[in-house]
From TrEMBL:
It comes from Candidatus Lokiarchaeum ossiferum. The lineage of its organism: Archaea, Promethearchaeati, Promethearchaeota, Promethearchaeia, Promethearchaeales. Pfam families: HTH_5 (PF01022). Signal peptide: none annotated. InterPro entries: ArsR-like_HTH, HTH_ArsR_DNA-bd_dom, P-loop_NTPase, WH-like_DNA-bd_sf, WH_DNA-bd_sf. Gene3D superfamilies: Winged helix-like DNA-binding domain superfamily/Winged helix DNA-binding domain. This is HTH arsR-type domain-containing protein. It comes from the Archaea.
Length: 370
């Protein structure tokens, strides 16, 4: 391109911008008729929390939780602990917030407290929560996997949690890895696994996401099968894929929603790698599971994997380089050392390995005779 062409292109664009013809993503969303909560995932999640009644949650699970709450009201000397177990983004927080909302509708005087453990970041706040917990009948504990000292807390403050209904949420890898400790701490535990979306439920979710869209909703809803397939039915990844696809439509300067923008978004999120996970060797699956578990509470160096699998440094390095090349793990240089984490977009699908092996229903009890 000649310099004269560069100058002409710049001057023309400069004049358009000066005349107010500049369009950023927010103004584009508005012009296209998309609601502003699609700017990012956190805004969308907040929107969904305010529209719980529209969500296609598992009614059977909601009914079982409702039954346990009803039973507890008349039998408060009989403590119940329920654990909701699922992969990242499966909707554990959504279920807890739904239960919180429904309990408040039915029992105004019932004392219920919701605690997200990932937000308890200092000893003073922890002490406050533990002391306050004695005042409540029902405790909803979210993100239990975020507290590496969770078991110590409950063991040392066991009297604080007597005669209560506790509903806790766990990442499936942590629940499986610490299953014996959990069963020892809560011998009367009842466990429910949160499954992925069905394609029909995924369409209902998409319908909620676009209910304030001012354009042709049916045009977007027609792409549900692609969002469902590419996300594997994981609610969070489904939503993130949709949001990123809308943004790709803007970046690609497309006049309408197309499969092209969805495919670009899928590839950018590495979701095309999901099918490759099942093809991995057992050794590579074990590496991924170990990195995932260890990284909950510490940085994972090659030395940890050498110790765990009793392999040579060269062998571990070889496997890690293969996993890095396939984008399953991420390298983090730290001085002369390197620590490893799981590709965050693939974490839910790696957690499925734990679900398959854990056989949760065989290892823990479901609610009976309530």
């Amino acid at each position: 391109m000649k310099n004269t062409d560069l100058r002409k292109a710049f001057k023309l664009s400069y004049k358009e911008g000066k005349d107010g013809k500049f369009e950023n993503y927010m103004s584009w969303l508005e012009n296209q008729g998309f609601p502003n909560y699609l700017l990012n995932y956190n805004l969308t999640k907040k929107y969904l929390f305010h529209n719980l009644e529209y969500l296609a949650l598992d009614l059977d699970l909601i009914a079982k939780l409702g039954k346990s709450v009803g039973y507890f009201i008349n039998n408060q000397d009989d403590p119940i602990h329920i654990s909701l177990v699922g992969v990242k983004g499966s909707g554990k927080t959504l279920y807890l917030n739904t239960i919180l909302s429904l309990i408040k509708e039915i029992e105004d005087n019932l004392k219920v407290n919701y605690i997200d453990w990932q937000n308890v970041d200092n000893p003073e706040k922890l002490d406050e929560i533990l002391n306050d917990s004695q005042l409540y009948n029902i405790l909803l504990f979210d993100s239990c996997e975020k507290r590496k000292d969770f078991f110590n807390i409950f063991s040392s403050k066991e009297n604080y949690f007597k005669n209560k209904l506790i509903i806790s949420s766990w990442a499936v890898d942590t629940f499986f890895y610490n299953n014996d400790e959990i069963l020892n701490l809560f011998p009367n535990i009842n466990t429910y696994y949160i499954n992925s979306l069905t394609e029909k439920n995924a369409e209902s979710l998409l319908d909620i996401l676009v209910q304030e869209f001012k354009g042709d909703k049916q045009d977007i809803l027609s792409f549900n099968s692609f969002f469902f397939k590419y996300s594997g039915g994981n609610p969070e990844m489904y939503i993130r894929l949709f949001i990123k696809s809308v943004k790709k439509q803007f970046l690609l300067n497309l006049d309408e929603f197309t499969l092209e923008s969805i495919n670009f978004a899928r590839d950018e999120m590495n979701l095309s790698l999901i099918t490759e996970l099942e093809k991995l060797s057992n050794q590579h699956k074990n590496f991924l599971k170990e990195i995932l578990i260890l990284s909950r509470n510490q940085k994972v160096y090659a030395s940890k994997l050498i110790e765990k699998f009793n392999l040579t440094k060269a062998t571990v390095s070889y496997h890690l380089s293969q996993l890095k090349e396939k984008k399953f793990v991420i390298y983090h240089p730290e001085g002369r050392s390197i620590f490893y984490t799981i590709n965050p977009n693939l974490e839910p699908y790696i957690q499925i390995f734990f679900r398959t092996e854990a056989k949760l229903n065989d290892k823990t009890r479901n609610l009976q005779n309530l």
